[in-house]
Amino acid sequence: MGSPVPPHPAAMPDHPLAIAPLTRPVSDADLRALAELLADAVNAGGAVSFLPPLSVERALAWWRECLTDAGPGVAVLVARDAAGIAGSVQVHPAWAPNQPHRGDIAKLIVHRRARGQGLGTRLMAAAEAAARAAGLTLLTLDTKRGDAAERLYRRLGWTEMGSIPGFAINPDGSPQESVFFYKHLR
Asked: Which of 1, 65, 76, 129 lies at 20 to 30 Å from 25 by C-alpha?
């Protein structure tokens, strides 16, 4: 899917996690692994657009639709370890004709078994590299206020541009504030 992505340090043979673009056609095994990754994240409290409990079957249906509807230039990057897909992130070029330089980061997900190893940082570096390779110079994203992802994006040099109270809801139905970030790629 999308433009070729230059190799990322995590894809080096001596590294236990390899990050690479997901290519079409996507195998049934990869679709299942992506669904398990999404269900794991959501059921562990991750704020990635779904509410728990999320079944693997529902996550599988979402991934099938997502990958079918992915427009030109969309990059879905996956991190693989010995157990399979351990993480994923997406880069979506902006659809608007007056924004050929801009893209959105979506669904940064790290499986519980791979957390605490810097995989989120490596996935974001790979996403930024994919965006640069596609000619993008500005990226945007949003995340839940107070979430670990918010701290990660700040650490990686993303700039907060504001927040919206009640943008989404938490599993208990309470309003969730979302924080929006941007990053100029140099």
From this structure: 129
